From TrEMBL:
GO terms for molecular function: tRNA (guanine) methyltransferase activity. Pfam families: UPF0020. The lineage of its organism: Bacteria, Katanobacteria. Gene3D superfamilies: Vaccinia Virus protein VP39. GO terms for biological process: tRNA methylation. This is Ribosomal RNA large subunit methyltransferase K/L-like methyltransferase domain-containing protein. PANTHER family: THUMP DOMAIN-CONTAINING, TRNA (GUANINE(6)-N2)-METHYLTRANSFERASE THUMP3. Residues 157-318 form the Ribosomal RNA large subunit methyltransferase K/L-like methyltransferase domain.
């Protein structure tokens, strides 16, 4: 095997590995060749459009790896980087105006000469917040030179008009939905819908769903959600209601229920979370159809688990996630995949 042949590198949130592998397995032309932490490498796919459509992946790059590809070597063989630049700009001229090189010693003469090459050859301007993100990094004995294939991470969806504080990462929303067995579902409820990330991901990925409803008690969040839904072209498909869980809104029964529960600093600061979660679990056990799936995401998983254990709901499995928030703190939330416990049938003779 030619060790420096181009590869696709996909980075994902810790804990979403099985979701990423499931998604990739749906494409016959994508082949995983190796894994490294929360990244995996694929054989280079000529058609980057397929890669750009992946929903469980946070970021995608084209990379070349070789034990020789240190900054000095790249500065003396600039066509290695040029090849990557031309591959991602091929059908995308004009999408990239600025660039940034992430590399140890970014002020060194070698890296400066690479930056000059990027400016002169491709007319790009060097900037801290850049469209084109180049990296030259060493992992073990191997150097990797790579470029992110899109100006924004894949996890930043086009339908997001504005980011709501406390909104869910869309790759996690995709994961939650993919754990609901939605291929066989007709009706879908999203409790605490916020800016509608879960609803939109469900509407876009599962056109078979006949009924998609969400509710939230915050007017501003409903209004932002409506804008996102409109941008996603799903205004006829998704219904949003302004309702409070404490009022036990009567919306019918559902094959799937999802929720990104309120927690932490930005949402429900003064709420008694335990009480809120209790109402939520009681509501779900009344509104989930038998054989249906309830999939819940929260950082306050101990509170949730305790309440579920005393309810008619059973936990089928959990996924533990870990990622860095925008304020550089680690969050370790969990996804709970649940169903209703089977009721005992007592036959009276
Ligand atoms: C973590 S956020 C959901 C974020 C959403 N998944 C998104 O991506 O934007 C939780 C939501 O619960 C809503 N909420 C809090 N308490 C509520 C209650 N008692 N009844 C209904 N909604 C409530 C908040 O307004 C907030 O939008």
């Amino acid at each position: 095997m030619n060790e420096s042949k181009l590869k696709i590198k996909l980075a994902f949130i810790t804990g979403l590995r099985e979701i990423v592998f499931n998604e990739i397995s749906q494409y016959a032309n994508l082949h995983v060749i190796k894994e490294e932490g929360d990244s995996l490498y694929l054989d280079f796919a000529q058609d980057l459009a397929v890669i750009k459509r992946l929903r469980s992946v946070s970021r995608a790059y084209i990379v070349a790896q070789n034990s020789k590809y240190n900054p000095l070597y790249i500065s003396n063989h600039k066509s290695i980087l040029g090849n990557l630049v031309e591959t991602i700009t091929d059908k995308n001229k004009g999408a990239f105006k600025t660039f940034k090189i992430t590399c140890a010693g970014s002020d060194s003469p070698e890296v400066r000469s690479i930056a000059e090459y990027m400016q002169k050859t491709y007319g790009l301007t060097e900037k801290e917040e850049a469209d084109m993100k180049v990296h030259i990094v060493k992992s073990g004995e191997i150097w990797e030179v790579g470029i992110q294939i899109t100006p924004r991470p894949l996890s930043v969806r086009d339908y997001k008009i504005k980011n709501m504080s406390g909104a869910m990462d869309s790759t996690i929303a995709y994961a939650v939905n993919s754990l609901c067995e939605l291929e066989n579902a007709n009706s879908y409820l999203n409790v605490f819908s916020g800016s509608a990330t879960l609803l939109i991901e469900a509407g876009q990925c599962y056109p078979n769903l006949k009924q998609l409803i969400g509710f939230d008690n915050n007017k501003k969040h409903i209004s932002l959600a409506m804008q996102n839904i409109k941008k996603a072209g799903l205004i006829k498909k998704i219904q949003l209601k302004e309702k409070d869980i404490f009022d036990k809104p009567d919306l019918g029964k559902f094959d799937a229920i999802t929720s990104d529960l309120p927690f932490g600093m930005t949402i429900s600061k003064n709420e008694d979370l335990e009480n809120l979660y209790r109402y939520f679990v009681e509501y779900c056990q009344e509104t989930l159809n038998h054989g249906g799936r309830l999939v819940v995401y929260t950082s306050e998983y101990e509170i949730l688990k305790k309440i579920i254990l005393g309810s008619k709901i059973k936990i089928v499995k959990t996924l533990e996630l870990k990622f860095m928030t925008s304020v550089n703190a680690y969050l370790r939330p969990k996804i709970f995949v649940c169903g209703l416990k089977k009721e005992l049938c007592i036959k009276v003779i």
